[in-house]
Amino acid sequence: SYVLTQPPSVSVAPGKTARITCGGNNIGSKSVHWYQQKPGQAPVLVVYDDSDRPSGIPERFSGSNSGNTATLTISRVEAGDEADYYCQVWDSSSDHWVFGGGTKLTVL
Amino acid sequence: EVQLVESGGGLIQPGGSLRLSCAASGFTVSSNYMSWVRQAPGKGLEWVSVIYSGGSTYYADSVKGRFTISRDNSKNTLYLQMNSLRAEDTAVYYCARVLLHCSSTSCSNRRAFDIWGQGTMVTVSS
What we know:
The complex is a heterodimer.
Chain A: E1 9-12, E2 18-23, E3 33-37, E4 44-47, E5 61-66, E6 69-74, E7 83-91, E8 96-99, E9 103-107
Parallel strand pairs in A: 1-9
Antiparallel strand pairs in A: 2-6, 3-4, 3-7, 5-6, 7-8, 7-9
Chain B: E1 3-7, E2 10-12, E3 18-25, E4 34-39, E5 45-51, E6 57-59, E7 67-72, E8 77-82, E9 91-102, E10 107-116, E11 120-124
Parallel strand pairs in B: 2-11
Antiparallel strand pairs in B: 1-3, 3-8, 4-5, 4-9, 5-6, 7-8, 9-10, 9-11
């Protein structure tokens, strides 16, 4: 089965740029989606199809995907961005959805 | 307003059964791909099952043969029937809608979850 690998944690100072990676075999050939989850809340889709944003998501959230790594970039990080972030793909070979293990973003 | 509301969670003994419900409003369940995703306490997200608009269903290996996803079009509600429950099934269960992206000429399912319910907790313990 397809595996997505994320760093357990990323720390960033307010106003700086956070980059959260998601590794997978030839992930560049897949569409990657990203979710933000704050404690006690349901996940929220922040980026889909590698780099598109749903309505209502700030432009500070962006994504890229190439080779074996997809990246969620959060510019001008704010305290309110502190959350767990998950990447996700659809594995067409099995018709299964796959999540990465999640990355806890800490705003220093 | 587009919304999903889960219910049916609770404490159940190992080997028992439980049926979760997910009532949708603001859109039609049968016209969308719908899924269940769970999250064990302190752990990450795990996809459980999906039902396509055409009725096809798929399951994670961890629940295949024990869980059944279905929908009632008249009630605009999604279900998850869970049998032979195990301690490792303990989690918050979310229902979620798969994003349907439409352009001026066509619509396509983008395999991302754009609407989530608030979740319902299932605890399997004796």
